[in-house]
Automatic annotation (TrEMBL):
Keyword Transmembrane: yes
Gene behind the chain: Cacfd1
Domain of life: Eukaryota
Family listed: Belongs to the calcium channel flower family.
Stretches that traverse the bilayer: 32-57, 69-96, 108-141
UniProt lineage: Eukaryota, Metazoa, Chordata, Craniata, Vertebrata
Xref: SMART domains: Cg6151-P
Compartments where located: Endomembrane system
Entry annotated with the keyword Transmembrane helix: yes
Protein known as: FLOWR protein
Length: 177
């Protein structure tokens, strides 16, 4: 145990069990959907990087600002979704672990907000198509935040109970009139 672990025992316990800290955020997602979101994030980062670089080749300052923002979006997507792409950056694993602890709706809002800003800044086809996959990654995380769809039997029971309640309510109202 190092002197730093003695000073901060909670940090040492969290470093010893990173799976336990990340488990609550992933409890509603299946493994294949989690991988789909990660792959969409990486592809979104690639599209943001190329479109951002292409967007910077202009003299319009708003296009340059949107292009720089898109490249920043690509860096953040790589950092959060694929930290192995940023292995020479010291804080990459820490940022990825923190991003994994976020809830799905928080990731959805963050990714969609990141993708919308350059489009609002400079509405061109390059910014629109370059940020589309990054925005789709946010949508995928947002859909996972909604949860699983219920089964047909449970839905039919709920509908039948509503119908019985309405009949009771209608019967009591007719009896009072």
């Amino acid at each position: 145990m190092s002197s730093q672990d003695e000073q901060f025992p909670a940090a040492a316990a969290a470093a010893a069990a990173p799976e336990a800290a990340a488990a609550p955020a992933e409890e509603g997602m299946t493994w294949w959907y989690r991988w789909l979101c990660r792959i969409a994030g990486v592809i979104g980062g690639v599209s943001c990087a190329f479109a951002g670089l292409w967007n910077c080749v202009t003299i319009n300052p708003l296009n340059i600002a949107a292009g720089v923002w898109m490249m920043l979006n690509a860096f953040v997507l790589f950092l959060c979704e694929a930290p192995f792409c940023c292995q020479f950056i010291e804080f990459a694993n820490a940022v990825s672990a923190r991003a994994d602890r976020l809830r799905a709706w928080q990731k959805a809002a963050f990714y969609c907000g990141m993708a919308v800003f350059p489009v609002v800044l400079s509405l061109t086809l390059t910014t629109l198509f370059g940020n589309a996959i990054a925005f789709a990654t946010g949508v995928l995380y947002g859909l996972s935040a909604l949860g699983k769809k219920g089964d047909a039997i449970a839905y039919a029971r709920i509908q039948q109970q509503k119908q019985v309640d309405e009949e009771k309510l209608t019967g009591t109202l007719e009896g009072q009139a």
